[in-house]
Design a protein that fits this description.
- By secondary structure, the protein is an alpha/beta fold.
- The protein has 2 domains: 144 residues, CBS-domain (Roll); 106 residues, CBS-domain, CATH 3.10.580.
- The protein has 11 helices and 17 strands.
- Strands 1-2-3-4 form a 4-stranded mixed β-sheet. The chain has a 4-stranded mixed β-sheet with strand order 9-16-15-14. Strands 10-11-12-13 form a 4-stranded mixed β-sheet.
- The longest helix is centred in the N-terminal third of the chain and has 14 residues.
- The termini are far apart.
């Protein structure tokens, strides 16, 4: 099978032990490597397929030599989808994804040097409200990526002994299952929230998110809808893009127990429900706030 030349992994040496100059709490001991990287000329459709197939939440854009230039997450892709639909609703859906990554990538990347400590990395994540940091060397070469899940699964820390109610997002912005995809993306873009609990009336039924939209666009479902125009796609109900099997937790559940439940899922979030009513919403970032180091 031929290796795709547009999507590359940075090659790194496998070390049995960290170098003596790398401290125990260095970010390099906990970050994920090699990170997935693409060049500016990679088509968006190829990016979509890779995100879905490999479950990535972010893909970095670098020069051919590995110098960091940008990043693409599901949010950049849905923003692009909304923008193109506002330009021309008659555009065939598949045609817009032939554009290159350079058209949609975000350049304002928050990165951290490979020499930094985990304590500084966690502080920066909390301060900026971000769930992933690019790890670079002194020359801007991409070395690894540190995510909130890396912190929660690998680093030595203690989670607060509190309950979900103390850390969850209360009164989250939600979306009704009968709203259109266009309305759903507009709400995400205007609010800045990439995850919206989906309600059928007042009953929470799942999660509508930028990532769930990408799963549709980069998966088999899009093949079934390949003949649609942007107008037809954007008028589809958000229910077609809603994940139903998201964890549902009780607000009085302890934080450590809740994390044990969530880390077994691939969504990194959960609906917090009491007596059938949505009480709140919790994400990996909320668990980061509960970390005691």
């Amino acid at each position: 099978m031929k290796r795709n030349k547009e999507i590359r992994y940075i090659k790194g040496r496998q070390l049995k032990k960290p170098p003596s100059c790398v401290s125990k709490n260095s970010v390099l001991n906990y970050a994920s490597s090699p990170p997935l990287q693409v060049t500016k000329t990679t088509p968006v459709l190829r990016l979509l397929e890779t995100i879905v197939a490999r479950g990535f939440r972010r893909i970095f854009v670098t020069t051919p030599t590995g110098i960091l230039q940008g990043v693409v997450t599901p949010m950049e892709i849905v923003k692009y989808l909304l923008c193109k639909s506002q330009e021309n609703l008659e555009t065939p859906v598949l045609s817009i994804f032939s554009t290159s990554v350079s058209k949609i990538m975000r350049k304002d990347i928050i990165s951290i040097r490979e020499s930094e400590s985990m304590f500084e990395s966690i502080r920066l994540m909390k301060q900026k409200g971000i769930n992933g940091l690019a790890v670079v060397d002194d020359n801007g070469l991409l070395k690894a990526v540190l995510t909130v899940r890396d912190v929660l699964e690998k680093f030595n820390y203690s989670l607060s002994v509190g309950v979900l109610r103390d850390f969850m997002s209360k009164s989250p912005i939600c979306i009704s299952s009968d709203r259109s995809l266009e309305e759903g993306i507009e709400i995400m873009v205007k609010s800045g929230y990439r995850r919206l609990p989906c309600l059928d009336g007042s009953n929470p039924i799942g999660l509508f998110s930028s990532r769930s939209v990408i799963r549709f666009l980069g998966g088999r479902e899009l093949v079934k809808e390949a003949g649609k125009t942007l107008g037809e796609l954007m008028s589809m109900s958000v229910i077609s893009f809603t994940v139903r099997d998201i964890p549902v937790l009780d607000p009085e559940m302890s934080v450590p127990e809740a994390w044990e439940t969530i880390k077994r899922s691939s969504y990194g979030s959960a609906l917090v429900v009491k007596s059938g009513s949505l009480e709140g919403f919790i994400t990996e970032m909320d668990f980061l706030k509960a970390i005691e180091v």
